[in-house]
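[INFO] parsing input record for mitochondrial processing peptidase
[DEBUG] input buffer:
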Amino acid sequence: MVSRTVSASLGRVLRSAARNPRSLRSFATAANVPSPITEVTTLPNGLTVATEAHSHAQTATVGVWIDAGSRAETDKTNGTAHFLEHMAFKGTNRRSQSALELQVENLGAHLNAYTSREQTVYYAKSFRKDVAASVDIISDILQNSKLDSSAVERERDVILREQQEVDKQLEEVVFDHLHAVAYQGQPLGRTILGPKANILSIKRDDLSSYIKTNYTTDRMVPKLVKLAETHFSSLPVSSNPIPLGKLAHAKSGFVGADVRIRDDDVPCAHVAIAVEGVGWSSPDYFPMLVMQSIFGNWDRSLGASPLLSSRLSHIISSNNLANSFMSFSTSYSDTGLWGIYLVSENVMNLDDMTHFTLKEWTRMSMAPTDVEVERAKSQLKAGLLLSLDGTTAIAEDIGRQLVTTGRRMTPQQIESAVDAVTPDEIKRVAQKYLWDKDIAVAALGPIEGLLDYNRIRSDMSSLIY
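[DEBUG] output buffer:
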């Protein structure tokens, strides 16, 4: 499974919430309910263990969050982290693949994994009585995978088929191109699956080397202390341990540029525009999320009313400038991408589409309204509730926060951080990150009508609302 960003990030939750507004609940109701405490323990070997007990839950989710993904690869080994994810379930020194699958099935458990640019995650959801068995299975997979050469060869075709399926998902393609142009020649610019040549050439030694380098105690956040002590005590310790939440990679540099793939056989133009955003630990993280929420998302095929959403949705819909748009705020350890993804069949008016979008961005630098800021804050807090629905989502939130920032904020703390965002804060971050800043653009489809890069870039500083 591939994740462009960590799947439980608030930005992604907001996009889901916008598509399913009826599922939102009042954050104020839950804010008055005390949250279970997240206990964080560091074992003697440096492994961080986070636990949170929910007495009413009949199921439990345990997993290991590793602070290493495709960003930890080289050009030659790009795709290794994702390849390893596939190999994790192909058998260990203690369990054959069939034995592993049978045990998971007999437990009624769900075993899964995903890879992103900065993290790799392995987790299991089971009945609470089977937690010990789940931890044993995950530890076995992480430490004892056979990485059989014949299984490696068989899996190449599976990954190539997955790559073909991803290539059909134009949103994924555009965002991969957006990363490639924004972080040119840098690890963040590479895809998660890697190029076809690497998928065909990665060897067992490449997989083994990645494990030895990156699957170390200082990069991991598993769950449950006693079981972790039993099953993970033999994990290797890094010769140069990096505290959780600290930068484990060379700092990335954002590049203002564009990439365009014209294909007139595609029915709609797909355009992503982004400025450099913020990392997970930035003090501007929450103001940038609120500003993302101000622009929100809109899709005419879902019957969403433009009058009930952002001002941009009203402009886009009333002038038939796009079929849909999705704002995003994607964070990494030291950088991020903040922007918008637009899809339009009105290919003769792509210049108007980008013009009015950037005009709205510019307005944030001068006159965000109290009403739209409060609405955005309410939607952001409602999105948080959706992101914490069930043990798997909570485990994801704990693992992601500890790996990326070194601590876990409670829902109440996040609510306070969101509530502290004011229109003046939005104006400040808009001036800091949007006004007259370089942009990265990725466009695919019938895009002949899209203005050239310099014309679009000039809109970032010349528009006066």
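[INFO] Confidence is low (pLDDT under 50) at residues 2-32.
[INFO] shutting down worker
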